């Protein structure tokens, strides 16, 4: 079996990406800094050369040397210019008179003889009586920036050129130390970025690692594991989303297992009864055949109702289980009362009206109230009272069905809304799913169903629904004290 191929982790990819982007940014900065530095050097060199030209012009305009003697010859003027001006560290001066080089001045020997001759040859091409010219000379790999100034003295037929030249390579080399320091600092910066980004990512991606570890520990039998929630950032929201998904999966798996257990347990009984009676039936006895047929049909009808109820409970977790729309709650209550009156000889009535119009599924709410009234009929006797009612209570609307029967025994009250809980009372017949269906309908509306009552004093089942879009309606009924006190007043009554 081939081993699982492991790719590069997300953390590694992010760190490499951050370091690479940082390196590219540092390189870009270095390139820009180099270009700017080169321009600065050129500007500084040109300024220095322009200053030399200005000093030579000033000297020529004065027309006298330091002792006050007038310049009678070109050689005298140029010699005095070299004597007064001291070349900078990377600068050389040279003088051309009629194509010859009588003087060269420098801070220290900077250019070779061949370079001096190349400078002289280039500068000698300048025409007399023209403006000074700035030019570059690249001689055998060395870059030189120079200015050539034509010079003449009245009364002297000689033609001269004053040349100031700067070694650009030497000027650039002064930045080598700065570049080396930049490279070292850039390397340290990359190291710091890598270490810090690793620590930050390790901390920030900790919920993802916990998510992976939790997902590996989750099995079909145990979905209780959850990821600790910390903070309020995107990863925290992801954690809450995943935990919510696990909650829904846990409920779905529990409902699925409960459904399978319920089906396996509850459907086995009618199937066993049908199978047993068919095996024991005497096919030659018409009376036995007819009796068996009635019993089998009755069991099959019970099985069909049970399947329908189980399917209804299974669908209750779906988002389309209820179709919410503005509904007059009092109309639902009176409609249910009209439908159940003929079902049993009871004293029927309405305790209170709410005057509320809220968003509910009227068909599902009617189904829940019919289930509760059917349950009340089953646990009451002829002449007992069964009443419905509704009232607004804060942000909720409460709808109830109460009866004057024996109530629910204390030992059964904690489990009456669970599936297949028929109670210990003698009248505890049926599938045991009725109250579970009521609870499912209430929860689908975002509400709940509660039992309120005392043993021997009747039972009251209250469905509480959030009152979204509540509107006032005329004829608001009594407050909930009338419900809790089991008032004998009724708006409609029959016996």
Automatic annotation (TrEMBL):
InterPro entries: 2C_sensor_his_kinase, HAMP_dom, HATPase_C_sf, HATPase_dom, His_kinase_dom, HisK_dim/P_dom, HisK_dim/P_sf, Sig_transdc_His_kin-like_C. The keyword Transcription regulation does not apply. Its cofactor is Mn(2+); Mg(2+). It is an enzyme of class 2 (transferase). Keywords: ATP-binding, Cell membrane, Hydrolase, Kinase, Magnesium, Manganese, Membrane, Nucleotide-binding, Phosphoprotein, Protein phosphatase, Stress response, Transferase, Transmembrane, Transmembrane helix, Two-component regulatory system, Virulence. PANTHER family: SENSOR PROTEIN CREC (PTHR44936). This is Signal transduction histidine-protein kinase/phosphatase MprB. It comes from Mobilicoccus caccae.
């Amino acid at each position: 079996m081939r081993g699982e191929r492991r790719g590069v982790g997300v953390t590694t990819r992010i760190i490499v990406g951050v370091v690479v982007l940082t390196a590219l940014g540092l390189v870009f900065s270095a390139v820009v800094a180099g270009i700017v530095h080169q321009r600065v050097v050129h500007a500084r060199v040109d300024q220095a050369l322009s200053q030399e030209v200005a000093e030579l012009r000033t000297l020529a305009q004065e027309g006298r040397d330091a002792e006050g003697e007038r310049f009678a010859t070109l050689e005298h003027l140029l010699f005095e210019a070299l004597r007064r001006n001291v070349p900078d560290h990377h600068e050389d001066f040279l003088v051309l008179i009629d194509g010859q080089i009588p003087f060269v001045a420098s801070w220290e020997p900077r250019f070779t003889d061949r370079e001096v001759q190349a400078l002289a040859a280039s500068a000698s091409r300048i025409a007399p009586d023209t403006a000074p010219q700035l030019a570059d000379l690249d001689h055998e790999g060395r870059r030189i920036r120079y200015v050539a100034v034509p010079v003449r003295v009245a009364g002297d037929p000689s033609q001269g050129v004053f040349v100031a030249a700067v070694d650009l390579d030497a000027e650039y080399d002064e930045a080598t130390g700065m570049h080396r320091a930049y490279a070292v600092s850039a390397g340290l910066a990359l190291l710091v970025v890598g270490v810090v980004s690793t620590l930050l990512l390790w901390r920030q991606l900790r919920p993802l690692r916990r998510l992976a570890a939790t997902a590996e520990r989750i099995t079909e039998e145990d979905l209780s594991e959850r990821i600790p929630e910390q903070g309020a950032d995107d990863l925290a929201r992801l954690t809450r989303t995943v935990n919510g998904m696990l909650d829904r999966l846990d409920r779905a798996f529990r409902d699925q297992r409960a459904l399978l257990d319920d089906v396996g347990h509850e459907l086995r009984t009618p199937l066993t009864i049908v199978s047993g009676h068919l095996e024991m039936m005497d096919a030659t006895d018409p009376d036995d055949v007819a009796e068996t047929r009635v019993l089998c049909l009755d069991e099959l009808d019970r099985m069909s109702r049970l399947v329908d109820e189980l399917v209804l409970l299974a669908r209750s977790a779906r988002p389309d289980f209820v179709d919410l729309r503005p509904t007059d709650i009092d109309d639902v209550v009176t409609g249910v009362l009209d439908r159940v009156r003929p079902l049993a000889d009871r004293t029927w009535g309405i305790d209170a009206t709410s005057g509320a119009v809220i968003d509910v599924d009227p068909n599902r709410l009617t189904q829940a109230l019919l289930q509760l009234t059917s349950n009340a009929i089953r646990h009451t006797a002829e002449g007992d009272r069964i009443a419905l009612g509704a009232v607004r209570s804060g942000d909720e609307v409460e709808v109830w069905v109460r009866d004057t029967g024996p109530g629910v025994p204390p030992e059964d009250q904690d489990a009456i809304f669970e599936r297949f809980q028929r109670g210990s009372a003698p009248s505890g017949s049926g599938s045991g799913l009725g109250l579970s269906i009521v609870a499912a309908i209430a929860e689908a509306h975002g509400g709940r169903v509660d039992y309120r009552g005392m043993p021997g004093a009747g039972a009251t089942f209250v469905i509480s629904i959030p009152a979204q879009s509540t509107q006032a309606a005329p004829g608001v009924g009594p407050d909930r004290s009338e419900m809790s006190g089991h008032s004998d007043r009724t708006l409609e009554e029959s016996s």
